[in-house]
Write a structure and sequence with these properties.
It contains four helices and no strands. The N and C termini lie far apart (73 Å). It has a domain of 57 residues. By secondary structure, the chain is mainly α. It is elongated.
Amino acid sequence: MTSEDWTRRDVIRGLATAVLVAALPLAPSGAVADGPAPAPRDREARRRWALARMDEMSRERLRCHDRFRDPRAIRECQAEFERRHGAYNEIYIEAARE
C-alpha cells in the first residue's frame, strides 16, 4: 500500500463521518430531539411562543414546493403544516384571551 491509498481512504472515511454527523437530528441543549419544546406557562410567553410556531409553520408550508415535485405530495405537505398552524393559532388565541 502506498501513502496515496491511505490518504484516499482517510478522506473517504472523513467524508462518511461528516455525512453521518450531518444526518443526525440536532437539538438545542436541554431539548428533546423528537418533539417541539413544551409551551411555557406564563401567558405572555405562551402567546409569543405560539406566534413564533405559527410563523415557523407558515414558512414550512411555503417550502413544500421546494421539497416535493408531485402535486399530491405538495398538497399533503401543505395540509399538514396548515393543520399545525391552526393548532398553534388556537393556543395563541387562548393566551391572548386570558
